[in-house]
Each structure stands twice: as C-alpha cells, then as structure tokens.
Amino acid sequence: MTVPDKGVHGPLAGVRVVELAGIGPGPFAAMLLADLGADVVRVDRPGGAGLAIDPAYDLTNRNKRSVLVDLKAPGGAARVLDLVERADVLIEGYRPGVAERLGVGPEDCHARNARLVYGRMTGWGQQGPLAPRAGHDIAYIAVTGTLGMIGAAGEPPTVPVNLVGDYAGGSLYLVVGVLAALRHAQEHGTGQVVDAAIVDGAAHLATMIHGMLAAGGWQDRRGANLLDGGCPFYGTYETADGGSMAVGALEQRFYDEFVELMGLKDVADARGDLARWGELREAVAARFKTRTRAEWTAVFEGSDACVAPVLSLREAPGHPHLAGRGTFTEHGGLTQPAPAPRFSATPTAVRSGPARPGADTEDVARDWDVPALRDAAPHS
C-alpha cells in the first residue's frame, strides 16, 4: 500500500487502481473508488472504448487519470503489468478469457503482484452456460426475475433504465467485493479475484422479496403487491398539469395524514380491504387530477404523509432539500451528482473532470514510476 497523498481527500487516498477501459458498470465502479480518493488510472485503448460520447461529458471518468495503451500491440501488456506491479486493485470488464489472451489475466497480474485485488465485472459471470455470450443490463435482470417484478399489471415489464442491473447489481457489488478483498490483502498479504456478475447482484437485490414470496406475502406477478405499484397508497399519480406525485404512505400514521390532506377520509377504511383497493386507487387518482404538481407539493410540504413530486433529471438539482444538502455539485460547468456517501473525517469531492484518453500519460509515468508509458505511448 502506498503512503496516502496528503493533497487528496477521501478514505481511499493512497490506494492505486488500474482500470482497463470498458463501458457501463466497470467505469462506474472505478469512478466510485476514485470519488472515495483512490488514484485511478484508466488504461484507454487507441480509438476509444466503444460508446459514441464525447469524453469531456463522460462523468463516470471523473476523478481519474488516463493513459493510452494498445494491449494488442507488442509491449502493451508489459506496460499494463508495470502499472499492476504498483497497484492495489485492477478492474476489467472483458468477456471471460479475453484478459488472459491479452496477457493481463489474474495469473499474469498476480505473478507480478501477489497482493493485487483483481476485480472482474461481467453480466453473466466467469462460469455458466451463458458466460461467453454477449448481453446487456436488460437481459441480465430479465433472467433473474427482477425485471419481471417491475411494471403495471397486464402490461409488459417496465425497463428501469440500466440502474438495477449495470449499476446496482453490477458496480456496487464489484466495489463491495473489491473493498472486502482489499482488507483481506492488507491483513494477509495475498490478493484474489473478485467475480462480480450482474446476474448474481440483481438476484441478490431481491432477497427480501424472495422471503416475502416464500412466506405467502408476495404474489409472483406484477402490480399486485405492496411495493410494486399494486398498492393504492404506494405508487405514482398524475396531476392536473401532466406532472406526477409519488405516494409512499405505508404505515398507518402516515396513511392517516395522507388521506386527511387529500380530503379522502370517507374512503380511508379501504386501506385494509384488498377487495376495495381498486375503489381507493380511483379516488386517489381522481383527487390528484384536481390540482397541479406544484399545488400538491405545497399541500404536503412539512407533512409526514410520505408524498413527493416526481422531478425530472434537470429539475432534481434545484429541489430545496437536495440543494441544501449539496446532493448535486458543479465542476467544469457540468452539473452532476456529488460523491456519496459522506465521511466526517475524510471528505470526498469531485477533484477533476472526466479524464481525456491519454492526457495524463506523463504524470502517471512519473508518479507511478513507469517510464515505459512515456517512452512508448501510442498516438490516437
């Protein structure tokens, strides 16, 4: 482990991470580590990683540095292994076997650095019938049953962007695994491979639901349960101006306040009668349609009814609570979510904007003492 850089904040200051460039959950996981203060060096390939996005706007590459290495060119793997020798963590998101063929698989890396935590980010995992197949977030959450839970009854499942699979079931589990393995490496001097598969993480996220299913408290169909929109006091409703309000008045005391502020005390007793949930839903929906989103927001302001306006991405940073907490921040002219979570002794921050491919080769070559990066850096 390197000595923490006193100029870098965050609980992972001093931890060195090599990220082999990819798309999706791997870069986001590396961003999380970078947000926490790790020195993340992204090894970009000449020509880019595959998504047609201007690197200046790829916020998942913030707080990182980038070098260009062509792993398929002579000497490419050797330069990456030079970085690995000085690193604590490596993250890659190739299909199983690709890193090995490129000469930067776990055996190659551990031969140079036995303490290395080798993080592997895939959709299907390193083993199993589908391991060598291509896929994306939507397919991974589909086979786990997770996608099948989301959406209205009688309609196809609703796609939850790529948040549930790529980032919740993938990136977050990879980071948890890497940090756990890093602690083990610090105590025992030996690294290991972390196999983070989105199918595993997405399935694991539904652990509570599986328990409810086994206990008979969850129906195995969409829009029929307490937390999936089937409940009339846990869902979203349209307002007079086409906006939406989110209702989560599950507990009795919150529900009582909700129906009072809505002016629906005459149907309040439908809460405990599943046969009357349709009646209750219609009453709530009709009432919400009588006022605008802003008007309903004012009605529930300061209450414990658990009701909130549904905001857009552009609206969210201006919400008084989020603005007051600094949930969003601006860096280099780009408004973006601030690092999370927060630490009392080792505060985090957006220290630098998205890394430009190859822009930090000189600095990394010096700081990590890998002169070969400078001497043989390819040109994009």
For the sheet with most strands, the description reads: 6 strands, parallel
Helix count from the secondary structure assignment: 14
Structural class: alpha/beta
Q: Strand sequence of the main sheet, in spatial order?
A: 3-2-1-4-5-6
Quote the distance from N terminus to C terminus. Answer: 32 Å
Q: Round the Cα radius of gyration to an integer and report it.
A: 24 Å
In one word, what is the shape? Answer: elongated
Strand content of the residues, in percent? 5-15%
Low-confidence stretches: 1-5
The portion of residues assigned to helices is 25-40%
Arithmetic mean of pLDDT: 94
| Subunit organisation of the chains | single chain
Order of helices and strands: EHEEHEHHEHHEHHEEHHHEHEEHH
Total strand segments: 11
Secondary-structure map with pairings?
Elements: E1 16-20, H1 25-35, E2 39-44, E3 64-68, H2 76-85, E4 89-92, H3 98-102, H4 106-112, E5 117-122, H5 137-143, H6 163-188, E6 192-197, H7 198-205, H8 207-214, E7 234-238, E8 244-248, H9 252-262, H10 277-288, H11 293-300, E9 307-309, H12 320-325, E10 328-331, E11 334-337, H13 361-367, H14 371-375
Parallel strand pairs: 1-2, 1-4, 2-3, 4-5, 5-6
Antiparallel strand pairs: 7-8, 8-9, 10-11
Would you write up a description of this structure?
The protein has 380 residues and is an alpha/beta fold. It has 14 helices and 11 strands. It has helices spanning 25-35, 76-85, 98-102, 106-112, 137-143, 163-188, 198-205, 207-214, 252-262, 277-288, 293-300, 320-325, 361-367, 371-375, and strands spanning 16-20, 39-44, 64-68, 89-92, 117-122, 192-197, 234-238, 244-248, 307-309, 328-331, 334-337. The strands form 3 sheets. Strands 3-2-1-4-5-6 form a 6-stranded parallel β-sheet, with helices on both faces. Strand 10 (328-331) and strand 11 (334-337) form a beta hairpin. Helix 1 crosses helix 6, helix 5 crosses helix 6 (163-188) and helix 6 (163-188) crosses helix 7. The longest helix has 26 residues, at 163-188. The chain is elongated.
